Amino acid sequence: MPEPQEKWSADLCGGRLQTFLWEHHKDLGERLVRVWTPPGWEAGQAVKALWLNDGQNLFRDEDAFGGACWGVAGTVAHLIAARSIPPIVVLGIDHTGRMRTHDYLSAPPTGWDAPWGKGMRGDMWDAPGGG
Description:
Layout: E1 5-12, E2 15-25, E3 29-37, E4 48-53, H1 72-81, E5 88-93, H2 100-104
Parallel strand pairs: 4-5
Antiparallel strand pairs: 1-2, 2-3, 3-5
């Protein structure tokens, strides 16, 4: 597997957010992986990691679906500063857009009951699943 390519990096909540383009799987193509490192972390330093899906929603409003991120970096930085958790690295894996249901669902979303009568979300009625 090729080495990930860094796309951009920025200071965020006392730590550092870096975004890498990573080859996920030959059939699914590339994925963005966002890596937030805690304040004071240095390359090569061993720490625990928290891996989260929907990486585009975790850290920055300008990247998040709906324009409001989930504030993960601020929450984790606060918990580290309060000594509620040890320093950790957070890795957010972006989903693949329309192929998101292929990644997350064991079957296509068609046929699921919903108030509007089609799948789990009307705009995902014909989305793939079963990945």
